[in-house]
Amino acid sequence: MLGFPERADPEVAAATFKAHLDKFWETAGSLGLEITRKDVDPLRVLAGFKAVRDGANTRDPFFVLLGAEYYDRWPPTAAFVDPENLEQVAANSRWWPILKNTPDWARFHNPHTFGDGTTGQMLCFSFTAEYYKTGHSPTERATWEQGRHTVSATITRIAALLRQPYYVGPGE
Fold it and tell me: pTM for this one?
């Protein structure tokens, strides 16, 4: 699936998003993931992550707003936000993670200018809707596939990047 994400039917997207999130949360703890969930509205969820630096001695909280505007034909939207106001954060914010030595399948860009002229964050990997708003051409193996991939793929990729050897610390 390539192209530009198109908005989904909100009721169908909300129901599918909730079902996939509920299923993921049943197993998140057994995967060793320290992630919390706060439903904001039917199409948005605030996921709280504990980033790990300095081996396992320091843990930093981060919050990602996941959206189902295009779900599940397309992956969820994803952006790091201030947990108080849910607004996207700047790169020098305490709420923006600094990464190094990222894998070749992922980058975090803040800010990023999209093809339509808007700017915002781009958690740049093929399991976010923003990735497809840029004209990227992922490999067949990495392309989001409706019915095969779910929001759990997005969450687990973010969690992996918020650990060693990638995560350094908060942006402040």
Answer: 0.95
